[in-house]
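Sorry, explain these tokens?

***
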Amino acid sequence: MLTADQIHNVHQLDAQGWSLRRIARHLNMDTRTVKKYLQAPVQKAVRRPRASKLDAFKNAIDELLQQDPHASAAVIGQRLQPLGFRGGRTILQEYVRAHRPPPSLPRAFVRMEPNPGDRFEVDWGHFGMLDYAGDKRKLYAFALVECHSRLLYVEFTHSQSFETFVRCHIHAFHALGGCSREIWFDNLATAVAEHDGRLVRFHPRFFAFAKEYGFFPRACNRAAGWEKGKVERAGIGYVRQNFWPLRQFTDLHDVNRQVQQWLKEVANQRLHRETRERPVDRFQPGALRPLPALTPDYRDQVEALVHKDIRLCFDGNRYCAPPHLIGQKLTVKANAAVVTLYHRNQEIVSYPRCWKRGQTIGAERFEKELWALRPAAACSQAQRRLMLFLEPFLPRQTVEGYLRGLAETDRSLSRQLHELLSLIPPYGPEAVATALASAEKAGAFGSDYVANLLRQQLCPRPVQPPVRLRDPLLNELVTDPLSLLEYDAFILSSRKESTDDVTRETGPAQAAHHEPTTGPDSF
């Protein structure tokens, strides 16, 4: 075999017009060698055939491929190992690829065009993540196509749960103004419970929803996406190509706002390449079935416990509830925009839904109420008992205001509450409520003031007739009115008032006023 330089010399001399014999004599070669390299400058090396590790197993491989033309080289290698095959994976893959039976011809289908109002097609699409300041949530697109007109409805969500799936249907029905006779799905886990050949079993909840709205659910066969090709091409595929590129979004509401604008201005206004009409012009809303008068409630629903910090957990966030519901289980119902708390089927409070995780919502509102009652928090049990007794006779705000005034004094709030509670058995809750209202109005904060008012109201002093003197001029004398408020304040400030003290202090005064007059010498 000649080297590259020798071959080059042969061709160079031939180009100069030398004959084969002269070139052979000059290069000391055989004439036939010169002729061979002039005809084919690059000579292929002669390879001797050698045995392959597959030779003994080729018949077995062909039989396995006849049994299952789609069997992979890895599976065939597992079957050959018990027969003694010790070859590598590469030679087996090359042989299987070269000897696999050719695929059968693709099936042909008859194109079907449904009548107006006959058929909707539904599909989901995954569109990556939406970033909420570092917290990422998966983003999905629900697409529904009215097959006759190709009118499109799209809604983005952060979930593919059953409740979200049904809510998207309801929103689409209201947007289109009705429901079709049939709706076609693929084997969605939220709709199809079991699919065995031609036998399809839908989830009971989804079947109940279909019955409520009066449509027949249809499930496509496995790996037969062409059975709902309109939503595949004119739905999710069209959204990926025409709506999704070159857009920026802030949150879920912003995504849905932009897609609704795109549907209104672009998707349903375009001239469709198959129908040669605009979907909005071809659409016939009168052909759809009417919707129920009452829209069913398909919000996300969970039970959540209100903890001691007035918070409950839902979807990665903490929502606050009123303080009096601590320890209670509330029902949380939520859609894509609002989270609502219920207690015994009564709505408590609603919040805008937050998709960023780890947030606390509503704390400012309810913690403010809690801080307002903080002075009485140390004796909350006694406070609740006092509230329970007095609320039938007195507004709650009045009792809270009086307790707040007590807390601002230098007296022990706990002792004051227990002394107020001790007044209820002897005087009754109504009388205590009246006395407390009077004390609150006068700004007299203390159980001793309330007790003094009760004694004055329930034990009034008897009215005595005036003393008649012998001298008429003396009977006409009028003295200045005497106020004992300063005297009472001096006595009560010692906080040692008792029944004996009252008797001892008031006794001489009463005797001085009511001592009978025996004659002029007594003056």
User: Anything to note?
Assistant: Residues 55-99 form one domain.
